[in-house]
Fold this sequence. Notes:
The chain is an alpha+beta fold. It is built from 12 helices and 21 strands. The strands form 6 sheets. Strands 8-9-10-1-11-19-12 form a 7-stranded mixed beta sheet, with helices on one face. A 4-stranded antiparallel beta sheet has the order 4-5-7-6, with helices on one face. It has a 4-stranded antiparallel beta sheet with strand order 14-18-13-17. A hairpin with a 4-residue loop joins β6 and β7. The longest helix is centred in the last third of the chain and has 17 residues, at 425-441.
Amino acid sequence: xxxxxIVFYSAAKSENPWIENAPGDLKNVFHTxxxxxxxxxxxxxxxxxxxxxxxxWDYKNKYYVLTLKPDLYFTNGRKVTIEDLEFSLxxxxxxxxxxxxxxxxxNVKGIEKIKLGTLYQSGLVEGIKxxxxxxxxxIPSSPNPSFMYTLARSxxxxxxxxxxKKDLLNWKKWPIGVGPYKITNEDKENRKYTLELVNHxxxxxxxxxxxxxLERISKPDITLKDPISxxxxxxxxxxxxxxxxxRLFAFNYTSKLGNNAEFxxxxxxxxxxxxxxxxxxxxxxxxxxxxxxxxxxxxxIVENQDLIEAKRLFKKVLGNQIDRVFKIPHTPDSxxxxxxxxxxxxxxxxxxxxxxxxIESNNLWNTFQDEFSDSPFRMLGKGADYYDPLMTFTMFKxxxxxxxxxxNDDTLDTLMEEAKISPNRDILGLSIEKLSKYxxxxxxxxxxxxxxxxxxxxxxxxxxxxxxxxxxxxxLAHITMK
Length: 482
């Protein structure tokens, strides 16, 4: 391999890195390289423009003004227009099915009137107004202190409409954007993708070619979640500020048990998280609440294992199902987290009176069907939402793409709506504290642990990983080669 080429490895079972049900960390790293971002969060947690030239709040008109950089071109050769920015902001809401993007960009005036699958037309959403050939206004329906942080995710990166299929979710071939890299080859059999730098003069020290692997075919030069690399003394290991993701239990609220508050409480009382995290292949940190360490609205809840009370509750709610072994689906994670931690969870729950078996499922959104239709809960990973802490909760709001994993709870919905209209980040933090306490008190979902973002890289080839906050956004173009 040439000196200016690197292998980036990210373990995943998904068909490719950009498909809708690909792991969030994988998809965001890939999209950031190929599509680029409108803005990014720097290591001081300030929002800075990338493909936007500028952004500001217009106090007179009470809207955000987003201005595109001039002379941007998609890698299909077409010049970017302001209509492309409008489409890219709204695409998730016109898509044929619920998606991660449709949970974000909240508080835009008129967005609630758009139904999934609606034929996209420019000008249809009253909260997006084109002002000139390179700027548009985003009119919030209420204050939204996290708006620009939300735009620091690849869900709203610039995309050309003509490269999408009719569902506005799937690409006709592969992603096309204005990113620092473009895809030049797809090896479907080995699930390996070749990315080549678009502008060598602009990014002189960045890797010219990146082999993006979903299978560990060769020793990688850089990775974020590989047990082999994390234990390789020849690699340099750097922990970034934002966690990579969290692992949690989400309940099936259409099942009798999943909808039972005492059953959910019994599960929480059964767990000893520090014993669980000792058995993950890559480092993990016990998580007793929704909000991860370092984010606003954190309560610092202390674990409260109580096996006696858990046994009493399980005996009460399970009744004649006390000896049943429940099938619990989980999203794929064996390549980087292993299976030993699942064995610990199984034993902890069994000691309290609940028998389960974990079964892998690639169905990310609508898992509670077929053999899992009566499963009371599932285990999955999700982003830590370090950028917009309110998004931590919207997975469990009515209308979430996590089918049947949100309760019919008016109080929870009210608290979410109150948090959405927080006029500033300080009040948002207080609103999230209230929301988090209610979430925890009622065991809406049960969080197990967070996974820190640790970059493992080959210092013989890579001088620095550059400016990186971490989480589910990693800038491959920020890497400096030796």
